[in-house]
Each structure stands twice: as structure tokens, then as C-alpha cells.
Amino acid sequence: MTTIRRFSCNDLLRFASVNLDHLTETFNMSFYMTYMARWPDYFHVAEAPGGRIMGYIMGKVEGQGESWHGHVTAVTVAPEYRRQQLAKKLMNMLEDVSDKIDKAYFVDLFVRASNTPAIKMYEKLDYVIYRRVLRYYSGEEDGLDMRKALSRDIEKKSIIPLKRPVTPDELEYD
Length: 174
Known about the structure:
Elements: E1 3-6, H1 29-38, E2 43-47, E3 53-62, E4 69-77, H2 86-101, E5 106-112, H3 116-124, E6 128-137, E7 141-149
Parallel strand pairs: 4-5
Antiparallel strand pairs: 1-2, 2-3, 3-4, 5-7, 6-7
Organism: Nicotiana attenuata
Pfam families: Acetyltransf_1 (PF00583)
Domain N-acetyltransferase: 2-151
């Protein structure tokens, strides 16, 4: 039975194997600690029986006015635990917190334009490509800003795609 719980400091010493995927960003310890301290409701880990970390999601809430939104900073599942709907469960948790607790208008995330499996998964979760961000990843690869409208965005204005790509310096939030 999988347990999903808040990420803890001890998990920082145990989750490296999940981050071995070349598409998963690895950050420094202070970055993870900041998320745990500021947005604990947005940082969860999935644990297998015996305590092995299966995956995690890390996010935050940010913006102002109609740009108030939940943001998925990272979601990843270890290769041996994929295709079990774990990423979907983690995403649903973050969306619920964004929608019901923080009353956000939408949830957004960035994904490498070349990461077709992830893009397809997000589309199945009702995310749409809002805009392309040129050279978002290491100044080389384009990123896609994908969004899902939440219940507060009745007219779904937050997910109307932009007609032109943007550069990273044009982004409102990083």
C-alpha cells in the first residue's frame, strides 16, 4: 500500500534515487528546505511499504489577482513505480490544495518541449499548453508553460493560449 504524506527533512537524505532521471531537475538542499518551510501543503512524498520513496511533488502558490495560482515546481516518480497513476494522485493533491485551500485561479507547470510522455500525461490531466518559453531550460531547450483552470476561473481565462512564444525574462514568476 502506497502512503502519501508531507515531505520531511529526513526525506532529503532518501530521495536521490528518484532524481536520477535525466529529465528531473535536482536543486540544492536550501531550495528544498525553503519549499518545506514556506509551502508544506504543496510538498508531498509517495512511500512504498518498507519506506522506499516512490516519487514526490513539490510546488507553491504565487501571483496576484487573477494570476494567483498553484505552481508545480517538480513532480517525479521513480522508473520502477511509473504507470501506476502515482503522478496523477500527486498532481490531484496539489490541485486540490490550490483550488480549495488557497482559492487559486489555475495551476501551472513547465515541461521540456521534448518530453512527449510528460506532455501527454499532463494533457490527460486536462492541462493545456498556454505558451512556449524559448530557451527556458539551461538557455538551450524550449519549455512549455502548461495550465489547468480551477473552479475560481469560471470563464477559463487563465488557459487561453498566447499566440506567440515568450522569453524567460518575460515571465512573471520563476
